[in-house]
Amino acid sequence: MELEKNKSVQIWLKELRGRYKDPNEINLRLELLKKFCDVVAKNPDELIKEVYNFNSNPPPSAFYCEALLVDYASPTILKKRDYYNSKINEFIKELEGTPSVRDTYGNIIEGFFIYNGIRMNRKPKVWSHTGRGSMNYGKKNSEILIFKKNLICEIKMSTMDFENFKSVQIWLKEVRSRYNTDEINMRLELLKKFCEFVAKTPDELLNEVYNFETHKPKFKNRKLYNDKINEYLSGIVGSATARDNYGNMLEGFFIYNGVKIFRKRKVWTHSGGGSPT
User: Fold this and answer.
1) What is the pLDDT of residue 236?
2) In the chain, what is the greatest distance between 2 CA atoms, to the nearest angstrom?
3) Around Cβ 263, how many Cβ atoms within 10 Å?
4) For the chain, give me the number of helices (H) and strands (E)?
5) Which of 2, 70, 78, 178 has its CA 20 to 30 A from that of 114?
6) Which domain holds residue 162?
7) Domain co-membership, 58 together with 149
8) How many Cα atoms occupy the beta-carbon half-sphere of 179 within 13 Å?
């Protein structure tokens, strides 16, 4: 499905391009809508037709517009709106982040309908917390796969080549002067998977542990990401030495960007054959 060929997306994009000058902001919204369409198995034009009972003779200059709102929404259409509102909330429930962040993504999807002349009147979901920005989905932490890709991180990193992040470019400048192509690619893949694991882009990772405006470290976050590195390494099969080397590679990303995180090495235990327990 080529999203931008849908007439409803063209109308939406006209508004977005008038508001956002950064292409990444627009691409993120397009990718979010695309993923929602994949979840509900509808293309954007089909979504619009699902939730509005259009006039048989709409204004000649409009496909979807505010003028159409003079028509009443039948009970069937209202039920469909409720259905897709619940689908929006189900979709954003799978995204990790604070309540305000996830509701912002819900607002973006709802905005697609609004700019096409349809008011969904979605009720934002009341999210529950299990501590510092972590959502309670009724699952134990042990049930969450360590390499589970976070959707929002995937969206952010799909809008631009991983190597185009400024922090990655600085890191690569040093790495390329020291290692061959295979070793460089291995380090890139390691960093990318760690970013997916913590649901942050490389640039966001640096801003999480260091305040570049005040030039002061964020000590609590630094400890948090030290722990996250060790938690990530615990999911990699290998000897204690190998896993600690991977940890050093990740720490090197911060160091080459001028940020020291003083990672505490974890004491790994073995169950034989180089496979960590």
Assistant:
1) 78
2) 74
3) 20
4) 11, 2
5) 2
6) 145-256
7) no
8) 14
